[in-house]
Amino acid sequence: MQPSYVYEIHMPPDFDPKKNYPAIFTLHGKGSNEKNMLSLVEPLLHDFIIIAIRGDLRLGTGFQYYELKSLGNPIRELFDKAIQQLEDMIRYATDKYPIDPLRRYLLGFSQGAILSVTLALIMGEQIKGIVALNGYVPDFVKTEYPLQSIQNVSVFVSHGEYDSVFPIRIGKETAAYMQSRTPHVTFHTYPTDHGVSQENQSDFVNWLYEDAGLRQEGK
Questions:
Q1: Phospholipase/carboxylesterase/thioesterase domain: from which residue to which, for each copy (predicted)?
Q2: Backbone angles phi, psi at 10, to 5 degrees
Q3: Helix %, strand %, coil % for the chain, to 5?
Q4: Which of 12, 121, 122, 170 is deepest in the core (most CB within 10 A)?
Q5: How far apart (Å, rounded) are the C-alpha atoms in residues 117 and 139?
């Protein structure tokens, strides 16, 4: 099977082919690309396999995973296709690389965060945890998708208090919905617009190390 997406893979610098590693699949925002996510996960490169996935649809100088009818209203056919392709991509990468299937994480920003929470809800405990930065759960996912238990899935949700794309209310609603499905939710807000601050990055990096049972270098 060939994956539907272009991706970059980064192995730990002291990679041992006899070991399995925790993996983070990164999903970028609308109009961006996989390289923009790498700066966010740079502090994790030493201990995690990073798979940065590029959307397959062009948007200006960047990419997206699906198109919108309007803000917050995905074209359902394209959204469904993206979810299926990403699920296939996660399985493909797990078979191809020395990834620990019990420590697979999704980390997404904006459109990538929307996809991350959706994938967690339909893949359930096949995913260890997600980091959802400035996203939300589409209503049709809550009501029409075949949702799995995420009782043991770890969730980090963060949102900008001054987000001009998805207002802070949406971030709080996302956190509340995920809290209704798993007790393992961490929710933070930051005094930012639609972006990721250095404090936000530091918080999710620490969270990922702790959740994966790893010791961060220098700590």
A1: 23-203
A2: -125, 120
A3: 35, 25, 35
A4: 121
A5: 12
